[in-house]
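Support request, please re-run this one:
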Amino acid sequence: MFFYQNAGGVPAHRPTTINDGATLSRGGYQRSGAAALDVFGAYGIATQPSMVDESNNVSVTEETLESDSKGELIKLAGKLRDRRNELNQLASKRASKRDELNAKTREKVNEAQEYREKRDELNEQVQEHKEQRNELNAKANELFDEVEQLKAEMELDEGKSLEQLKEEIEELEFKQQTEVLSSEDERDLIERIEEKRNQYRDKQEKLEQNDELDDLVEEAETVRAEASSHHQEVTTLAEEAQEFHNKMIEAYREADDIRDEADEMHEKFVEVQELADRHHEDFVRVQKRLRQLDKKEEEERRSDRERKREAAREEAEEIYEKFKEGETLDTEDLMKLQKTGLL
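Re-run finished. Output below.
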């Protein structure tokens, strides 16, 4: 098991949702202020102001709908239509920026996932080398135990080691060369030196004459060296895995920053789109009122035409009665009778 340190102890990744509904893996890091704005500059993306200029907005009240003339309402509808179209264009631009940022977020997440895969591959290799190292170390320990056991059987561990005997011989020889001794002390010292040399030669001969021990020591040292080689691979591969882990964390951090910008841009898009929708709804309200006025005018014109036809028919009937009574009709009277179908 390998553990990695993140800044502040934050986990390597966590789930997140970008504003178009796609779920992504990401790190738990956020930036704000100037650091967040740097992300836009890094990808060549222009920022939008957080607030919409409301000085050009057009509002409609029920009183306006009821009291304004048809001409005034037509002008109002034009203003609402133009402002709605302007806001829709701005919303479209912000949606494009948001989608662009979301695409950048996915790119960074994909990059982080590639780093993760490479890190995991290296971790698998680390684990393999570690297992081999442990197995070889266990085998080397067993072989060295056998060496010690064999040395004990040969009584090679009894008394002083070759190194200790060599040091003692050198100390005695140095004393012989540098100190003024009596004849008796010097003779005693020479005997001690000779005794140590004999012990050294005896132990060395026993070691040199034992091929089995030499072979066992050589095998144990070879196995230990192979274990060390695997340990070096563990260290090297673990360092490489850590590098990919750090790159993965940084990619997730950048994905977080860009996603935060995408979320902010989405909020700006929603702000403008809702304002455009409000203008469209008001435009529809004004259009509906204009249709009502058109319908009312048409009804008034129809009613007026009906009144005129009824009056013309009544007049024509009077003229027709006069005609039946023998009165002479002029051309205008005859035309009135023809229009009403009485002639």
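Residues 211-324 form the longest helix (114 residues). The radius of gyration is 53 Å.
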